[in-house]
Specification:
The structure holds 2 protein chains of 2 kinds.
Chain A (H helix, E strand, L loop, with lengths): L2 H23 L19 E3 L7 E3 L8 E6 L4 H15 L3 E6 L13 H15 L6 E3 L4 H5 L7 E5 L5 E6 L4 H18 L7
Parallel strand pairs in A: 3-4, 4-5
Antiparallel strand pairs in A: 1-2, 3-6, 6-7
Chain B lengths: L1 H26 L8 H13 L16 H15 L4 H12 L15 H19 L7 H18 L1
Helix pairs in contact in B: 2-3
Classes of the chains: A alpha/beta, B mainly alpha.
Chain lengths: 197, 155
């Protein structure tokens, strides 16, 4: 083997490895390609958290651009983002909660619905209530259909009920600017006024 | 002699005890199956499906909420009579290829198979094209003569 190659080959290998590992330093291990993007909201029929006699279906997302926030009072990060979400809803954005409770195991439930409702009321009273209403994902089946891995996660759903953004983690001003703002404004600009689902 | 006998008895009793404990755990499984095949499928699936929230844990081992929910879903789908492939597809459409420990061969993942072969080939090339290093005997004898001369000088 000629001399230059003996020096160049390891160097190229070393630089390649360095570049690969350096990139890894800044990658987010929790980041996944959401599978539900550009797909319609999966079909569901779930009770309202505060008024379980009311049933919500996927049609609640038709006609209006909506932010769907997956949350629970047990989730600390959800509490952190509540004030910011409240400020967004005060700007006129429609935010719907997809609520699931960690301690309410569908098979071996330990909490009563009243207890869950009370905790939600206490939390939203002290930290702000951004939600138009909360859909109670009793068996967490809809969360599973949405590819939700935990809480908080926030989805942007357009006026046709198509999922456009799926964000894992909390929503804050930086995330809003980066992932939501542009698309949200575009969608709202394209939604005919007065047509509500 | 008798002490070692007692010891032996204690150890064997202890071992027998652990056997019973294992058995008790096995019968206290979270889910009940009507056929052995279903139980087998459930075990294999939960061992090869990956928890999407945790860092590298299968859903059988993970205690995360999502792993609980996925186990329940796998159980539900299996008892509905779906095949393992259908269950894997179900999870893949929701959580992507990430969720299954066997990666599909795609343009990006093909390197997982090609790179080891490539490295092996480069290694083989280097090993087999290497010139045998020149014998060092001559150098050694020269060095020895030099050392000898130095020793002579010192005398």
């Amino acid at each position: 083997m000629s001399k230059p190659i003996r020096f160049v080959l390891p160097l190229v290998f070393f630089l390649g490895l360095t570049f690969f590992l350096f990139q890894g330093l800044f990658s987010d291990p929790r980041e996944r390609d959401a599978q539900t993007l550009e797909k319609p909201m999966p079909a569901f029929s779930l009770p309202d958290l505060m008024d379980p006699s009311t049933l919500h279906t996927e049609s609640v997302f038709l006609g209006e651009v909506t932010l769907l926030n997956v949350w629970g009072v047990w989730c600390v990060t959800c509490k952190v983002e509540l004030p910011y979400l409240t400020s967004l809803s005060k700007q006129g954005k429609r935010i719907v909660g997809l609520y699931y409770d960690q301690d309410l195991d569908p098979d071996f439930g330990t909490k009563t619905l009243q207890r869950v409702q009370q905790e939600v009321m206490e939390t939203t009273e002290s930290l702000g209530n951004p939600f138009a209403f909360n859909i109670f994902d009793v068996y967490r089946d809809t969360s599973l259909d949405l590819g939700v891995t935990g809480a908080p996660e926030t989805l942007l759903i357009d006026q046709n009920g198509i999922i456009r953004v799926h964000h894992i983690g909390d929503v804050n001003p930086r995330v809003w600017e980066k992932k939501f703002a542009k698309l949200y404004d575009e969608l709202v600009a394209n939604t005919p006024k007065g047509v509500k689902g | 002699m008798s002490t070692s006998n007692v010891l032996l008895t204690i150890v064997s009793l202890f071992l027998a005890g652990t056997l019973f404990i294992n058995d008790a755990y096995a019968s206290r499984d979270e889910y009940q199956f009507s056929t052995e095949q279903q139980r087998h499928d459930f075990k294999t699936l939960t061992a090869t499906l990956r928890c999407p929230m945790c860092q590298n844990q299968n859903i059988a081992d993970s205690d995360a909420m999502i792993a609980h929910d996925m186990r329940r879903k796998v159980y539900q789908l299996i008892t509905e009579g779906q095949t393992s492939e259908q269950v894997i597809d179900f999870m893949k459409t929701r959580y992507g290829d990430f969720v299954y420990y066997q990666p599909p061969v795609t343009k990006t993942t093909i390197w997982l198979w090609l790179l080891p072969v490539f490295v092996l080939m480069v290694g083989a090339y280097i090993v087999f094209t290497r010139k045998p290093s020149s014998p060092i005997e001559q150098d050694e004898s020269a060095a020895l003569a030099k050392a000898e001369a130095l020793l002579e000088e010192d005398k």
